[in-house]
Amino acid sequence: MKILIIEDEYNLADAIASMLKSKKYSVEIRTDGEEGLDEALTDIYDLIILDVMLPHMNGFEILKELREEKINSKILMLTAKNTIDDKMIGFNSGADDYLTKPFHMEELLARVNVQLRKNNTSSSDTMELGDIILNINSMELSNKDRVNKVKIIGKEFQLLELFMNNPNIVMDKEQLFVKIWGYETECDINTLEAYISFIRKKLKLVKSTITLKAIRNMGYVLEVFDEKTKE
């Protein structure tokens, strides 16, 4: 899951990012309103933590433009403003949640988890596709018989989760780079191919019939004959 923090207090943004990264989220920080909007418009983020008081462009303006551009990322407003009027402006403009400063990191994490759970295609802690189960909490991949299990973490986990949310759809390499490593990544094709290879090996280890195929000059597709996904 990818999260963008748009917050001009860098120390606070960095503390939030460190906490979220410790929970295996992928996080980017922007401290300027206009730069934050440009990054959010890439539409690669599952959730945006958005401060109201920002240089060059305030959070309400950013929120309004994102929703006008049909960016559907979950948006958590983070601000020192705590009046009912301010909250109503945020909610009426398309915010999903509103947290006022000062706050406890535990509460922020809880709210982030709630929003991302709503945004996930799975309503439980597991994703099922064909003959495999991906456990979100334990980061384990298993066959539906639950006998064969293997740990799958980091970028492997993120890639497999993305493929499982898009079964039998060819995903081009650039799309994979942006979704998993970010818009300005310096990762090359060799890195991507290495992670694809790791996922293939783990699918074999759990004795899955699902295949991760390379499509020449296009990208990769997770081929599943049984397309039922548990929701």
Write out key terms for the chains shown.
231 residues, alpha/beta, Rossmann fold, Arc Repressor Mutant, subunit A, 2 domains, five-stranded parallel sheet, 8 helices, disordered C terminus
The side-by-side strand order for the widest beta sheet comes to 2-1-3-4-5
Number of strands: 13
Q: Proportion of β residues?
A: 15-25%
CATH superfamily of the largest domain: Response regulator
Annotated CATH topology of the largest domain? Rossmann fold
* H/E element sequence: EHEHEHEHEHEEEEHEHHEEE
Which regions have little confidence, pLDDT < 50, spanning 5+ residues? 227-231
Please write the CATH class name of the largest domain. Alpha Beta
Break the fold down into its secondary structure elements and pairings:
Layout (H helix, E strand, L loop, with lengths): L1 E5 L3 H13 L3 E5 L2 H8 L6 E5 L7 H10 L5 E6 L4 H10 L3 E4 L4 H15 L6 E4 L2 E4 L4 E4 L5 E3 L2 H11 L6 E2 H9 L7 H17 L5 E5 L3 E5 L5 E2 L1
Parallel strand pairs: 1-2, 1-3, 3-4, 4-5
Antiparallel strand pairs: 6-7, 6-13, 7-8, 8-9, 10-12, 11-12
Please give a structural write-up.
This protein has 231 residues and is of the alpha/beta class. The protein has 2 domains: 2-119, Response regulator (Rossmann fold); 126-230, Arc Repressor Mutant, subunit A, CATH 1.10.10. It has helices at 10-22, 33-40, 59-68, 84-93, 105-119, 154-164, 173-181, 189-205; strands spanning 2-6, 26-30, 47-51, 74-79, 97-100, 126-129, 132-135, 140-143, 149-151, 171-172, 211-215, 219-223, 229-230. Helix 3 (59-68) links the parallel strand 3 and strand 4. Helix 2 packs parallel to helix 3, helix 6 (154-164) crosses helix 7 and helix 6 packs across helix 8 (189-205). Mean pLDDT is 86; it is low at 227-231.
